Amino acid sequence: MNAKQLAAEKAVSFLEDGMTIGLGTGTTAWWAIEKIGEKVKKEGWKIRAIATSVRSEEQARSLGIPIFSFSEIGIIDVTIDGADEADGDLQLIKGGGGALLREKIVATNSRQMIVVADESKKVKTLGKFPLPVEVVLFGWERTFEKLRLLGCEPVRRMNTAEPYLTDNGNCIVDCAFGKIEEPAILHERINAITGVVDNGLFINIASKLILGFENGETRIISR
Q1: Which residues lie closer than 8 Å to 15 by C-beta, 6 or more apart?
Q2: Catalytic residue set
Q3: Which end of the chain is least crowded, N or C, by CB within 10 Å?
Q4: Is 0.70 surpassed by the pTM of this model?
């Protein structure tokens, strides 16, 4: 069992039958969805789920996990999702998979967000991983330049020859800051730019970080 699978399956052990669950997006969240599907199929779990991306929704449906919309559910009990980076205060960079906006909407409407990752995603200071920023298409060039003025090297994300578009029809600008010493301040400065929908800094949202290690161990860091 690889480190990502270890972390994901450990996170699923915090879930219970009858819960409303947020399903994350990405290579580690994929393992969590697989395990939840196993609980539904083999143990008869009756749960309600809301997905953070089209591909996570498709995976869940294929496993028999019932998917609901926000109009059909109240508060989400637990969301399990991955991260591209996590620091010691459980501040995160997310959005490498392009689903940061839906991930943040689901996470901030959850009682708990459990983050799952392999050991390489734990960092002392955020920023080595370029920060994804979701930007509306209209006037994106000007938004791009305003992001550059914050001290990063921005790159518009591409899908082979075409610009990458999110499930919401927006583009992603990946902003290489190098080091993000004050993530909460940067989060506000980025979101103050007209044309920015949201960015991949998740500030004071995660409840737990579960790290998987190649030696078969897991480590839990709680807020």
Answers
A1: 21, 36, 39, 47, 77, 78, 80
A2: 103
A3: N
A4: yes
Residue 84 tokens read as 């591209």
- The architecture (CATH level 2) of 3-122+203-222 comes to 3-Layer(aba) Sandwich (3.40)
- Residue 39 CB burial class (10 angstroms; 0-12, 13-18, ≥19): middle
* pLDDT per residue of the chain (223 residues) written in tens, 0 to 9: 899 999 999 999 999 999 999 999 999 999 999 999 999 999 999 999 999 999 999 999 999 999 999 999 989 999 999 999 999 999 999 999 999 999 999 999 999 999 999 999 999 999 999 999 999 999 999 999 999 999 999 999 999 999 999 999 999 999 999 999 999 999 999 999 999 999 999 999 999 999 999 999 999 999 8
- The token pair at 161 is 């020859």
CATH 3.30.70.260 maps onto the chain at: 131-197
What would the CATH number be for the domain defined by 131-197? 3.30.70.260
Q: Is 186 helix (H, G, I), strand (E, B) or coil?
A: helix
DSSP H or E stretch at residue 197 = strand 196-199
118, 216 in Cβ contact below 8 A? Answer: no
3-state class of 221 per DSSP?
strand
